[in-house]
Amino acid sequence: MSKYDMLFKNMLLDYNSSLLLALKVPNGAVAALELPGLDSRRVDGIVDADEAIYHIEFQTKRDQDMKWRMLE
């Protein structure tokens, strides 16, 4: 995992994260998750706010398959 990925993930998990503000995601319950049974897939961030769930992934290198990873 890139050191930048960890930096962004840590910034996201801070209470009243300025990163959420920059991404225009409302403050809410934030979690980083590992999904059991899905090849050790990890979600960088899930935010539950304003009756919506936001799925946040950080990608510091260009990845043509990112949209498919998000869908998966």
Write the layout of secondary structure elements.
Blueprint: H1 3-13, H2 18-22, E1 29-35, E2 41-49, E3 52-56, H3 66-71
Antiparallel strand pairs: 1-2, 2-3
Q: Approximately what portion of the residues adopt beta-strand conformation?
A: 25-35%
Total strands: the figure is 3
Helix and strand succession?
Answer: HHEEEH
Q: Mean pLDDT score, rounded?
A: 76
Biggest sheet, strands in spatial order?
1-2-3
Biggest sheet, in brief?
A: 3 strands, antiparallel
Shape: globular
Number of helices: 3
Determine the N-to-C terminus distance: 19 Å
Parts with pLDDT < 50 across at least 5 consecutive residues? none
**What is the rounded Rg?**
12 Å
> Which structural category fits the helices and strands?
alpha+beta
In oligomeric terms, what are we looking at?
single chain
